[in-house]
Amino acid sequence: MNEVKGSAGLPQTLVFRLGTLGAVIGDRFAERIEPYDLKPKHVGLLTALGQGSFASQQDLAGRLGVAPSLVVSLADHLENLGAVRRVRDPDDRRRQVLTLTEQGHRLLSDCAAEARALDAEITAQLTPAQREILRDALGALATRAGLPTD
Predict the structure, then answer these.
(1) What are 26-64's pLDDT values in tens digits?
(2) Beta strand 92-100 with 55-56: parallel, antiparallel or unpaired?
(3) CB burial class (10 A; 0-12, 13-18, 19+) of residue 26?
(4) How far is CA 41 from the centre of its chain?
(5) 124-133: which pairs have CB atoms within 8 A and are 24 or more residues apart?
(6) CA 118 – CA 64 distance, rounded (Å)
(7) How far apart (Å, rounded) are the C-alpha atoms in residues 40 and 113?
(8) CATH number for the domain formed by residue range(s) 13-144
(9) What is the pTM of this model?
């Protein structure tokens, strides 16, 4: 049996490359949105809210795959920024429903612009065809993992 020792071959794996690149690019995105007083998890919540008209904190936790307490904490911060509004669900007074405000839509738009600018930077060395192939491949992986692709 041919056993690989240590890290031999690991840097060539997709898992290693996507994980490492994801961490580096995630840090760069975090730096770009820091002036908005946001972290990537805040943007994730804004994105989820932007895909629907409203959602309960419990529903969002399930959709994002995080603990409900994290959604509450993120929503607290976003509410302080004026980006989300909490209202009681008229059909179930026990539920808090979150909606994006105008400020929330602006922040989401600004973050999308920052992400597109970072996309352009990190793919500058690629040909247009390579960029499209990368976008398609990552989209297919995201779809299979149940992540949003729109």
Answers:
(1) 999 999 999 999 999 999 999 999 987 567 888 888 888
(2) antiparallel
(3) exposed
(4) 6
(5) none
(6) 23
(7) 14
(8) 1.10.10.10
(9) 0.84
CA-CA distance, 14 to 128, in Å (whole number)? 22
* Bridging pattern class, strands 84-89 and 92-100: antiparallel
Q: What is the DSSP letter of 147?
A: -
Segments making up each domain of the chain, as ranges: 13-144
Burial status of residue 104 (CB atoms within 10 A of its CB: 0-12, 13-18, 19 or more) = buried
Task: Give the separation between CA 50 and CA 67, rounded to whole angstroms.
Answer: 20
CA angle 69, 101, 65 (to 5 degrees): 30
What type of residue sits at position 105? H
CA–CA separation, 87 vs 75, rounded Å?
12
H or E element that contains 85: strand 84-89
Residue 104: which of 43, 150, 61 has the closest Cα? Answer: 43
